[in-house]
Design goal:
With about 100 residues, the chain is mainly alpha-helical. It has one domain: Tetratricopeptide repeat domain (Serine Threonine Protein Phosphatase 5, Tetratricopeptide repeat), CATH 1.25.40.10. The chain is built from five helices and no strands. Helix 3 runs antiparallel to helix 4 and helix 4 runs antiparallel to helix 5. The protein is globular. The protein starts with a helix and ends in an 11-residue tail after the last helix.
């Protein structure tokens, strides 16, 4: 996805959230787009919202942990990765970004 496409996607998700402030899917997709743009703090804020709606989803903690790692918050990332591992039903460790 090009930078222009990411920018348009973020604007579209912003509009969706303005229309329906509790639209979790829009927050999730905006978080992913913001992360791809390198706007990690904003992405983390959106992941925070999504995690409140689905606190037992290990994938969300893994993805937010990746944003924290990319922003330089390694301790926060490790906490999210550890929490994701605890939530996994199969007991296998999650794949952490390098």
């Amino acid at each position: 996805m090009s930078k222009g496409e990411l920018d348009r996607a973020v604007v579209d998700f912003d509009r969706a959230i303005q229309l329906k402030a509790d639209y979790v899917g829009a927050y999730y997709n905006r978080a992913k787009a913001l992360g791809r743009k390198g706007l990690y703090d904003r992405a983390i804020a959106d992941y925070d919202f999504v995690i409140k709606a689905d606190p037992k989803n290990p994938t969300l903690f893994l993805e937010r942990g990746t944003m924290k790692a990319n922003s330089g918050n390694q301790s926060g990332a490790n906490a999210d990765f550890k929490h994701a591992e605890a939530l996994r039903s199969n007991g296998l460790p999650v794949a952490r970004p390098r």
